[in-house]
Design goal:
4 strands; alpha+beta; 6 helices
């Protein structure tokens, strides 16, 4: 829907602009679109102060977790049991792959096991609390985003008939434009029919 608005409402000289104006889409919906969403339909965090703060806190916490993980990975005490120099996520938690779990060397929670059962994905105790906070922040962010989308959905519902009319009108215009482009490409012309209603067709294409 926002792409539609971008293509036609911004261009005030476009034929569709005058047609859309007649349908009286509410200003609240348009304002919410441009405030809340980018062209990919993703929420623009910087336009919502609370969401911006949450996202910044999330990134700071993420960086802190990664620093702790790198210290664990680079610890010589773990070299014989660690699988590789990388980390990943399981159920929203940062984990490290290990060949085996030895409580005498490192403690933590096993969050997953590979299909071959040769690798475990361990959440070390050093990052457990950070992981829990990371999940809580993600939940807060998703809840905030849900409120934004819920508001937009309510506004769309209010303008549903007008939006459907715009989409249908756009589809009709698109078909016409496609036929025009095809006609131009193959030098298509409107046939001139004589009074006897006889027509000789040569080297033509059926549109």
């Amino acid at each position: 829907i926002k792409t539609l608005f971008n293509n036609f409402i911004i261009n005030r000289d476009h034929y569709l602009y005058t047609q859309i104006k007649k349908l009286n889409i509410s200003g609240s919906l348009l304002n919410e679109f441009y405030l809340a969403l980018n062209d990919e339909g993703e929420v623009i965090y910087d336009n919502f102060e609370e969401l911006k703060v949450l996202n910044n806190n999330k990134n700071l916490l993420k960086n802190n977790i990664i620093l702790k993980i790198k210290k664990i990975i680079n610890n010589n005490n773990y070299q014989n049991i660690i699988t590789d120099d990388y980390f990943t996520l399981r159920d929203g938690r940062y984990v490290i792959p290990f060949k085996k779990y030895d409580k005498e060397i490192i403690t933590g929670n096993i969050r997953d096991v590979s299909n071959s059962n040769k690798t475990i994905f361990l959440e070390p105790d050093e990052i457990r609390k950070d992981n829990e906070l990371f999940i809580l922040i993600n939940i807060e962010i998703e809840n905030y985003k849900y409120k934004i989308f819920r508001k937009i959905c309510d506004l769309i519902y209010f303008d549903f008939r007008s939006i459907v009319s715009i989409v249908n009108l756009t589809a009709k215009i698109d078909v016409i434009i496609s036929k025009i482009k095809f006609s131009l490409l193959y030098d298509g012309i409107k046939p001139s029919i004589n009074n006897d209603l006889n027509m000789i067709i040569k080297n033509t294409y059926n549109l």
